[in-house]
Structure to design on (150 residues):
């Protein structure tokens, strides 16, 4: 049973990455572009350049999209995790100790989910994996073409 579950791990991790990246990008799209109801439920957006809201939304949109695609997953997840840690400790935690009390559950969950992706990588279905395969295949072809000299 364990062996069977372990063989599915890259695929489940890839699906986890896709869902987390999509949801994270949706937060950024709502704040920056007013999509999905925006910040106020009526299509409102965060004012351009405001600290920290606009920058957090930009990280959410770009980082979430990169994580969703599995492109530069570890770096994007690292920056995204740090942004959510900042959001939790600077915005939510001063209001109350526990995330359920300070409305910081999503910041805490995204922080830890992104941190997990930093250590696990993109899993299956990611562009990182596709590009790595393509570049290693080209490297092997070039090595085959290189004449051996004595």
């Amino acid at each position: 049973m364990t062996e069977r579950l372990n063989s599915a791990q890259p695929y489940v991790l890839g699906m986890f990455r896709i869902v987390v990246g999509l949801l994270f990008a949706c937060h950024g799209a709502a704040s920056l572009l007013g999509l999905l109801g925006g910040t106020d439920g009526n299509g409102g957006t965060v004012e351009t350049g405001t600290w920290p809201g606009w920058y957090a939304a930009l990280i959410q949109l770009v980082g979430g999209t990169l994580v969703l695609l599995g492109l530069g997953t570890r770096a994007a997840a690292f920056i995204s995790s740090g942004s959510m840690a900042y959001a939790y400790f600077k915005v939510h935690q001063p209001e109350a100790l526990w995330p359920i009390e300070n409305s910081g559950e999503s910041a805490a969950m995204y922080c830890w989910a992104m941190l997990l992706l930093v250590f696990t990588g993109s899993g299956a279905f990611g562009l990182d994996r596709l590009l790595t395969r393509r570049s290693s295949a080209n490297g092997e072809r070039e090595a085959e073409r290189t004449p051996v000299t004595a």
About this structure: Helices lie at 2-33, 53-69, 73-92, 99-102, 105-120, 127-145. The chain has a mean pLDDT of 89. The chain has six helices and no strands.
